[in-house]
């Protein structure tokens, strides 16, 4: 699955154009959705506002599940944006896959490890930052790495890397597998003329439905783990 | 594509780990967060907080006004029973006063009547005495005249009068008996 990609270099960094477009499209979609839902806010909510408040309550409850009241308020915006960014990312590739000269320009950005790793990195940086800002560097260090036993220091450091990798790769793996199977079904559909096309239609439907479910679950899992990792850093370990 | 995952290898880095995309994604995400905070999240949470406050205030003020209403009702009840007490006290007092006044009137009437009766009796007695005395004089004079005419005897009027007085006194005593 080594798809060709179109890249360019700037300041010694490599940029993947298709990926950038996907991320940008996702951001625009999320922003437009939130912008549309948040017009004409009233004290007594109606229609769109109810939907938006349900969404906000949903992510707030995820955060509240593992953080106390004050901290959860501080991280609720991050959780909200993160959830809907990942959710829309996951669904984007199921509906739109723009390919030009074998290079896909719009697909699920979360089907690319660099995006999921970025999100995981941001989450963990935020968690560590919250830990340092709460306990100071010394307190943060001893709370994160020296407890419950000092001899577990290498293990604790290693755990930080596994946290990072699993958080990013879980999301990437799920979405990437979903898109890959979708493209396999697509190849199958065009392989033997109309018969396979007819067979492929229900298969695509089923797999798309499952992918929608999977993408939502993965967004939920990602945000839940985010709040768990943050809570690990800012809570005193016994 | 999996080659992205081999972070440590410099070979892969030259192949194309899209380090630029890391920055771009983070940049996009942060911008998105800012925009959503400004346009959606901020107003929304402000509104939700406002609503929560309003509901709390409404509940508090409802509780307060309920308590006030209860207090007012109690006050009214109290005032009502007090006014009933007052009314019955006023009526009782009026009754007492009326009774007293009536008794006074009756008593004074009685004493007045008694005094009138007494004075009338006195007057009657006086008149009777006067009449008796007049009669006594008249009888005495008549008797003297009669006696002087009948007896034709020279008699001293004074001696005769004393005689007749004693006689009439004895008559009066017989009358009074």
Automatic annotation (TrEMBL), chain A:
Tell me the compartments it is located in.
Cell membrane; Membrane
Pfam families found in the cross-reference section: ATP-synt_A
Tell me yes or no: is Glycosyltransferase among this UniProt entry's keywords.
Answer: no
InterPro entries xrefs: ATP_syn_F0_a_bact/chloroplast, ATP_synth_F0_asu, ATP_synth_F0_asu_AS, F0_ATP_A_sf
Chief location of this protein within or outside the cell: membrane
What keywords appear on the UniProt entry? ATP synthesis, Cell membrane, CF(0), Hydrogen ion transport, Ion transport, Membrane, Transmembrane, Transmembrane helix, Transport
Q: Which CDD domains match?
A: ATP-synt_Fo_a_6
Query: Which portions of this protein are annotated as coiled-coil regions?
Result: none
Q: How does this protein lie in the membrane?
A: Multi-pass membrane protein
Where does the chain cross the membrane?
A: 20-38, 74-94, 114-137, 171-190, 210-230
This chain's function reads: Key component of the proton channel; it plays a direct role in the translocation of protons across the membrane.
The cross-references to PANTHER family, in alphabetical order and at most eight, read:
ATP SYNTHASE SUBUNIT A, CHLOROPLASTIC
Read off the HAMAP family from this record: ATP_synth_a_bact
Family membership noted in the UniProt record = Belongs to the ATPase A chain family.
State what protein this is by name.
ATP synthase subunit a
UniProt source species: Apilactobacillus xinyiensis
Q: What is the lineage of its organism?
A: Bacteria, Bacillati, Bacillota, Bacilli, Lactobacillales
From TrEMBL, chain B:
What gene, per UniProt, encodes this protein? atpF
Give the location in the cell.
Cell membrane; Endomembrane system
Q: Which organism is it from?
A: Apilactobacillus xinyiensis
Q: Which Pfam families match?
A: ATP-synt_B (PF00430)
Outline the segment boundaries, as ranges, of region: Disordered.
69-91
The identity of this protein, by name, is ATP synthase subunit b
Q: Where does it mainly reside?
A: membrane
Segments traversing the membrane: 20-41
Keyword Transport among record annotations: yes
> What is its membrane topology?
Single-pass membrane protein
| Comp. bias regions, Basic and acidic residues | 69-85
* Superkingdom to which the source organism belongs: Bacteria
Q: Does the keyword Cytoplasm apply?
A: no
UniProt lists the family membership as follows: Belongs to the ATPase B chain family.
Keyword annotations of the record: ATP synthesis, Cell membrane, CF(0), Hydrogen ion transport, Ion transport, Membrane, Transmembrane, Transmembrane helix, Transport
Described by its record, this protein's role is as follows: F(1)F(0) ATP synthase produces ATP from ADP in the presence of a proton or sodium gradient. F-type ATPases consist of two structural domains, F(1) containing the extramembraneous catalytic core and F(0) containing the membrane proton channel, linked together by a central stalk and a peripheral stalk. During catalysis, ATP synthesis in the catalytic domain of F(1) is coupled via a rotary mechanism of the central stalk subunits to proton translocation.
How it assembles, according to the record, is: F-type ATPases have 2 components, F(1) - the catalytic core - and F(0) - the membrane proton channel. F(1) has five subunits: alpha(3), beta(3), gamma(1), delta(1), epsilon(1). F(0) has three main subunits: a(1), b(2) and c(10-14). The alpha and beta chains form an alternating ring which encloses part of the gamma chain. F(1) is attached to F(0) by a central stalk formed by the gamma and epsilon chains, while a peripheral stalk is formed by the delta and b chains.
């Amino acid at each position: 699955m080594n798809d060709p990609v179109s890249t360019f270099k700037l300041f010694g960094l490599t940029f993947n154009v298709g990926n950038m477009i996907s991320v940008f499209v996702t951001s625009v979609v999320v922003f437009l959705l939130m912008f549309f839902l948040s017009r004409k806010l009233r004290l007594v909510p109606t229609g769109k506002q109810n939907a938006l408040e349900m969404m906000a309550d949903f992510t707030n409850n995820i955060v509240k599940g593992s953080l106390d009241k004050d901290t959860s308020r501080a991280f609720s915006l991050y959780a909200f944006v993160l959830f809907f960014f990942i959710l829309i990312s996951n669904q984007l590739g199921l509906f739109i896959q723009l390919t030009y000269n074998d290079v896909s320009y719009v697909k699920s950005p979360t089907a690319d490890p660099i995006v999921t790793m970025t999100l995981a990195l941001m989450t963990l940086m935020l968690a560590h930052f919250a830990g340092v800002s709460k306990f100071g560097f010394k307190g943060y260090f001893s709370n994160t790495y020296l407890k419950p036993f000092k001899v577990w220091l290498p293990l604790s450091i290693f755990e930080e890397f596994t946290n990072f990798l699993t958080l990013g790769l879980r999301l990437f793996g799920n979405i990437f597998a979903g898109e890959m199977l979708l493209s396999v079904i697509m190849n199958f559909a065009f392989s033997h003329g109309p018969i396979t096309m007819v067979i492929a239609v229900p298969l695509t439907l089923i797999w798309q439905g499952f992918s929608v479910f999977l993408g939502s679950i993965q967004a939920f899992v990602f945000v839940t783990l985010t709040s768990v990792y943050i809570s690990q850093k800012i809570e005193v370990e016994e | 594509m999996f080659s992205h995952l081999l972070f440590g290898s410099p070979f892969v880095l030259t192949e194309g780990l899209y380090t630029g995309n890391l920055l771009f994604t983070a940049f996009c995400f942060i911008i998105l967060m800012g925009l959503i905070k400004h346009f959606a999240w901020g107003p929304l949470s402000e509104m939700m907080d406002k609503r929560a406050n309003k509901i709390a205030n409404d509940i508090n003020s409802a509780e307060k006004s309920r308590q006030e209403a209860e207090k007012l009702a109690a006050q009214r009840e109290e005032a009502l029973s007090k006014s009933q007490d007052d009314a019955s006290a006023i009526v009782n007092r009026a009754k007492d006063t009326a009774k007293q006044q009536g008794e006074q009137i009756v008593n004074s009437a009685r004493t007045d009547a008694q005094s009138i009766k007494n004075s009338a009796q006195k007057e009657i007695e006086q008149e009777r005495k006067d009449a008796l005395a007049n009669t006594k004089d008249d009888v005495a004079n008549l008797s003297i005249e009669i006696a002087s005419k009948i007896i034709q005897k020279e008699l001293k009027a004074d001696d005769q009068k004393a005689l007749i007085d004693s006689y009439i006194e004895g008559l009066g005593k017989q009358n009074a008996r």
